[in-house]
Design a protein that fits this description.
Layout lengths: L2 H10 L1 H21 L4 E10 L8 H19 L2 H10 L6 H7 E5 L5 E8 L2 H23 L10 E10 L8 H26 L6 H8 L3 E6 L18 H14 L9 E6 L6 H14 L4 E5 L7 H5 L7 H5 L5 H4 L1 E2 L5 E4 L8 H5 L2 H13 L2 E5 L8 H8 L2 E7 L5 H12 L5 E9 L3 H15 L2 E2 L2 E2 L2 H21 L2
Parallel strand pairs: 5-12, 6-10, 6-11, 7-9, 7-10, 11-12
Antiparallel strand pairs: 1-3, 1-4, 2-3, 8-9, 13-14
Helix pairs in contact: 1-2, 1-7, 2-7, 4-5, 4-6, 8-17, 9-10, 15-19
Length: 483
């Protein structure tokens, strides 16, 4: 995974980083507040030797440096701790004294530093004083020669004993910085892991990779679409409507050598917006002056009639079983060159009915009566109806909702179409969360675009004028089909 992909995952899951950072800071603050203050008392020893003990100064220096290392071990030895506990009232055991003592030496010197860390400031000083006195006494005993004369080593206290006036721990500033850094790193790691484990579609590029087809449209999320799903009225000037028009343009030029006139609109799962997309795409094509016929072929859960406000009691199923003629049930919608063939009564065998010869003959007839036929079909993974219809169309348009459908489900839907040699015209990412900058750009420009005109005719009226001229021919053709 490249750096750009990781940064994108962190941005998408920024809330994980924020929550982890806040938790880390909270834990750090709790630990800092509940921690007992600790004080450090220290003493520094200087190790030397009389000049008569070693003739060569260089060899004497090496000798003392080796001794300092041994004395550092002696400061934390059991013997010294036992002597301190037995001679002084420290209120601690020998093991407790040992755990509080630490030593350090400076390379190339003969200085030895001992530190005592304790939660009691006064007790830390008492232990350090006892340590200094007992250590000097112990070294003298160890270095005394068998004849009772003084040894070649002399220990002197050159600094301390002294205790720090303020606690050395906890350190709120240091702890906060460390906690924030750890929380930030943990949050970034969790965000990346969450993104890698997330199998849902999150962007248009992922949809293209999974389906292996071009991205024809990216419809932005519009909360008002729940109550007003169609791009008419005030919604006709929204960013969502403009995205549908862009889809219309891309769909018409996806293959100029073999344009698709019968298009099946489907999705992997229910609820991804395929019916709304079918209706809005048909409306957008009709606005451009095309003679459009919208067919509701989702016979199990038809919704086209509900969205367009037309009667769906008689329609496609009744035509396929031969009860009525298609020209008798096709309904004109609005003042556009858009005709709608509703679903009709619910059949007991939708798949067989949609795959029948009657359906194939109907599509051939509808192809001649309209410039473009848009067919709303059932979801691909739920039932086989969508594949049955898509096989008979010129191509299929796959609609996927961002953040809802998984990549596996979309891939399975694409395989279902490819397995029967259906021409996948492209894919559409529905309810996409586009950057705010793009929305601002459209909102700033749409006022000017809405007032534009040519030859004194308001923008958009040219298409209506051309469509009005085609309505008579359109109606006459459908009337011919009904005979």
């Amino acid at each position: 995974m490249d750096l750009l992909r990781q940064l994108r995952l962190v941005r998408q899951h920024w809330w994980i980083v924020l929550v982890t950072l806040m938790v880390a800071l909270g834990v750090t603050a709790l630990v800092t507040v509940r921690a007992q203050p600790r004080y450090v008392a220290s003493v520094t020893f200087f190790v030397t030797t009389p000049s008569q003990g070693v003739s060569d100064a260089y060899q004497g220096g090496l000798f003392l440096q080796q001794r300092v290392k041994s004395y550092a071990e002696l400061l934390t030895s059991d013997r010294l701790a036992q002597s301190m506990v037995s001679e002084r009232q420290l209120g601690l055991t020998a093991d407790e004294v040992q755990r509080r003592v630490s030593t350090s030496t400076e390379t190339g010197t003969v200085l030895l530093r001992a530190s005592v860390t304790d939660t009691d400031q006064a007790r830390a000083l008492r232990i350090t004083e006892a340590l200094a006195a007992n250590f000097v006494e112990l070294v003298q005993k160890v270095e005394t020669r068998p004849d009772g004369s003084a040894g070649p080593i002399k220990i002197e206290v050159v600094s301390g004993p002294g205790v720090s006036p303020t606690p050395v721990s906890p350190q709120p500033v240091r702890n906060t910085v460390i906690g924030a850094l750890l929380g930030l790193l943990a949050g970034v790691g969790l965000a990346i892991l969450r993104g890698m484990a997330d199998v849902r579609l999150r962007d248009a590029a992922g949809l293209q990779r999974v389906t292996g087809s071009p991205l024809l449209g990216e419809i932005p999320l519009d909360p008002s679409a729940r109550v007003a799903p169609l791009i008419v009225g005030e919604a006709a000037t929204s960013a969502r409507a403009e995205a549908v028009r862009k889809l219309r343009t891309n769909l018409r030029f996806v293959d100029v050598h073999e344009p698709a006139r019968v298009i099946a609109v489907t999705s992997a799962l229910q609820g991804e917006g395929k019916t709304t997309m079918s209706c809005n795409l048909a409306i957008a094509l009709a606005e451009a002056g095309w003679r459009v016929l919208l067919v509701d072929a989702d016979l199990r859960r038809p919704k086209v009639g509900d969205y367009l406000g037309i009667d769906s009691g008689v329609g496609l199923t009744d035509v396929l079983v031969g009860d009525v003629h298609v020209g008798d049930v096709v309904q004109r919608w609005g003042d556009k060159s858009l005709l709608v063939l509703p679903s009709g009564s619910a059949p007991p065998n939708p798949s067989e009915l949609l795959g029948s010869k009657a359906m194939s003959d109907l599509l051939l007839a509808l192809r001649e009566s309209a410039d473009i036929v848009i067919i709303d079909t059932a979801p691909l993974l739920a039932v086989t109806d969508g594949v049955v219809v898509a096989v008979q169309a010129d191509g299929a348009l796959l609609v996927s909702q961002q953040g809802r459908t998984s990549r596996t489900q979309v891939a399975a839907a694409a395989r279902a179409l490819h397995s029967v040699s259906v021409r996948l015209l492209g894919c559409v990412l529905n309810m996409a969360r586009v950057p705010k900058t793009e929305a601002y750009q459209y909102e700033a420009y749409r006022v000017v675009a809405g007032t534009a005109s040519t030859d004194g005719i308001p923008a958009g009226r040219h298409a209506e004028r051309d469509a009005a001229a085609d309505k008579v021919d359109h109606t006459q053709e459908l009337t011919r089909l009904s005979r």
